[in-house]
Amino acid sequence: MTRAVYVDSFSTEDPLDGLVIGELTASDPPEGYRRVTVRVSALNHHDLWSLRGVGLSADKLPMVLGCDAAGVDDDGNEVLVHGVISSPGWEGDETLDPRRSLLSEKLPGAMADVVWVPERNLIPKPPELSFEEAACLPTSWLTAYRMLFTVSP
Description:
- The protein is of the alpha+beta class.
- It has a single domain (2-150), classed as Medium-chain alcohol dehydrogenases, catalytic domain (Quinone Oxidoreductase, Chain A, domain 1), CATH 3.90.180.10.
- Helix content is 17%, strand content 30%.
- It has a five-stranded antiparallel β-sheet. A three-stranded antiparallel β-sheet has the order 2-1-4, with no helix packed on it. Strands 7-8 form a two-stranded antiparallel ribbon.
- The radius of gyration is 15 Å and the shape is globular.
């Protein structure tokens, strides 16, 4: 069992109706994934979309929320979690994979005691950043980065 923040039903009118804070049976990690003990998970607008059923199908419920986190891996390294997960067999930049997903869409998210992610999704936490600051970077940074290169002239 693991403590988690998760969605167990959808509501477009009152998304918080489906929000649960409680215990879930921990899922088995996919092969090649690494465990991170979460110190901080950041709230992202993606979580609100998930509570409304956007990008998340009912057959995946209950689903742990959270794309962004910072914590410590099993080797004692302070890391931040990059929540974009490429499809099996994809090589290169996972943000360009048309079948990519985010944590909390197909795999449990980071609002739990522990999250499992591909090793390539672990980024060393800059020592000058707190865990709180580091946890807020991944999806926000990715959004700003993509906007610079896809929308700006």
